[in-house]
Design goal:
Length: 503
């Protein structure tokens, strides 16, 4: 270790110097045998899974319930209780995405800035706390304006959670191990949709308790649980790898080695300056992924926000209880396919083909749902909803990783994930207005709009693959090596000629 001390010489030395010491002199004694030991890698990943993932699974599960439980409240009488009419429900859905999109990039860039007094557990945990408060507020308002205001704030504080998680986990996991973990979190969302329906079913029995209708208790109970879990999140969410304490120095070095082996250790972007900003905003991969994400997330939200409504249209005799019971299994089955596809994707070290497979499965569902009345039975249409949901839950989490795997550097990854999820969530706005009361019971217009966006996403994924193919070819032929002479070579992220792009 060259006689270098493990700690600063005096208390006045900055945290940055402590971190620098840990990443250099502290870990220089790690032997190559350990770094290339598969058993050591497996032990590290297992340790990360036990320490890093569980709290995010819980928070994703609860916050997604708060995001979509308005669909369950609707069929329990929310519109009547708040004197809503016409497309008021669609507006209430849409305003969530207004703040969700607007604050996605600022909140994730704030996380990426690694401010000393604002570590991930405070920033992300604090956002979840406010989500819980305003989710509860939805059950306390008395008019349409009130629910709109609450949804605006829920959207604002939900904005940073998903891209923030992607950014943080990409600093812990190698890229071909990241997909499985992101899909586990996506499964938390699917289970939230399922469990939220079952919980709403149970809450129906509280109708009239405390002088409140059951739909109000849906918001109040579920929001309160989220707020409590947020406090736990402030204690358990991990810090950045170089600042945490649960990994030993050897394990930290191994984590860095595994990530660097998958891409390139010099493909960093840890300094925000004019050059790095230009590289961020001019990256075609990010903007094309926004287009892909719009069509994919619109498909997902079409079921999450309107699944109960679509099922209600299958048979006017269905009671709210039966609708909720028919909705829950859709997301349970989707969760299974989500995990299976993630396992396949990581094993094959391939993303785009799995995404396309998900699109094709959803296409089968839309093909059935768009049939004229009388051509297919209500049972067949119900089955078609499964196809749409399964396909979307296969594709959506893989898109997070597809882009993250092709970006590098703290600021670049933070910008890319927040723009993808933020602007791409405009698909949720489209989904919010696609299904109108006047189009009941088959909602052909809504299905046509969402299916069209899905086809645009499919074409865009193919274009993305073509772009990556030619960029990889140029790098292999040395046509990007001129960048090695740039003064920004150590801060160009995935633009570094030796960074390995992937499909």
């Amino acid at each position: 270790m060259d006689g270098k001390p493990r700690t600063p010489d005096s208390p006045a030395e900055s945290d940055e110097k402590v971190i620098a010491l840990r990443e250099t002199s502290i870990i220089q004694d790690v032997d190559e045998e350990y770094l290339n030991d598969p058993a050591a890698a497996r032990a590290l990943l297992w340790k990360l899974d036990l320490r890093v993932l569980p709290i995010f699974m819980l928070l994703w599960f609860l916050t997604f319930i708060d995001r979509v439980n308005i669909a369950n409240a609707k069929i329990q009488g929310m519109e009547k209780g708040l004197h809503m009419s016409g497309n008021n429900y669609n507006v209430a859905l849409t305003v969530f995405f207004a703040t969700f999109i607007a604050f996605e990039v600022p909140l994730n860039m704030l996380l990426g800035a690694r401010i000393k007094w604002l570590p991930p557990k405070i920033l992300l945990g604090g956002q979840v706390l406010f989500i819980g408060f305003f989710a509860m507020g939805q059950g306390l308002v008395n008019n349409f304006g009130g629910i709109v205001a609450m949804r605006l704030f829920v959207g604002l504080f939900e904005a940073g959670l998903v891209p923030g998680t992607v950014t943080l986990l990409s600093n812990y996991y190698p890229r071909y191990h990241l997909q499985w973990r992101m899909s586990i979190l996506a499964v938390a969302n699917a289970l939230a949709s399922s469990f939220g329906g079952l919980l709403a079913y149970a809450i129906i029995g509280m109708d009239g308790k405390g002088g409140r209708k059951s739909w109000r208790w849906v918001f109040i109970i579920e929001g309160a649980v989220t707020a409590v879990a947020a406090v736990l999140g402030m204690l358990l969410i991990v810090d950045w790898p170089e600042k945490q304490k649960f990994l030993s120095d050897r394990e930290l070095k191994l984590a860095r080695h595994l990530i660097a082996k998958d891409c390139h250790k010099f493909a960093k972007m840890d300094t925000l300056n004019k050059d790095s900003i230009i590289r961020c905003v001019s990256d075609w991969k990010i903007w094309l992924n926004v287009v892909i994400y719009v069509g994919t997330v619109a498909t997902t939200y079409s079921i999450n926000l309107f699944g109960p409504t679509i099922i209600q249209g299958l048979d006017p005799k269905y009671t709210p209880k039966k609708i909720l019971l028919l909705t829950a299994p859709i997301f349970l089955v989707s969760a299974v396919f989500c995990l299976a596809s993630a396992w396949i994707s990581d094993r094959l070290k391939h993303r785009s083909g799995v995404v396309i497979t998900g699109y094709l499965i959803s296409t089968i569902g839309f093909g059935i749902l768009l049939q004229p009345k009388g051509v297919v039975t209500p049972g067949t249409r119900y089955m078609a909803i499964y196809f749409v949901a399964i396909g979307s839950y296969i594709s959506l989490p893989i898109l997070w990783t597809l882009l993250a795997n092709n970006e590098s550097g703290v600021y670049k990854t933070a910008f890319a994930s927040s723009v993808q999820i933020g602007l791409g969530s405009a698909g949720g706005i489209v989904a919010s207005f696609a299904y109108q009361v006047k189009d009941a019971p088959l909602y052909h217009k809504g299905h046509t709009i969402i299916f069209s966006l899905l086809m645009v996403a499919l074409a865009s994924v193919l274009a993305f693959c073509v772009g990556i193919f030619f960029e990889k070819k140029k790098r292999a032929e040395g046509k990007r090596d001129y960048r090695l002479g740039s003064k920004h070579v150590d801060n160009m992220g995935d633009d570094h000629p030796h960074f390995k792009l992937t499909y």
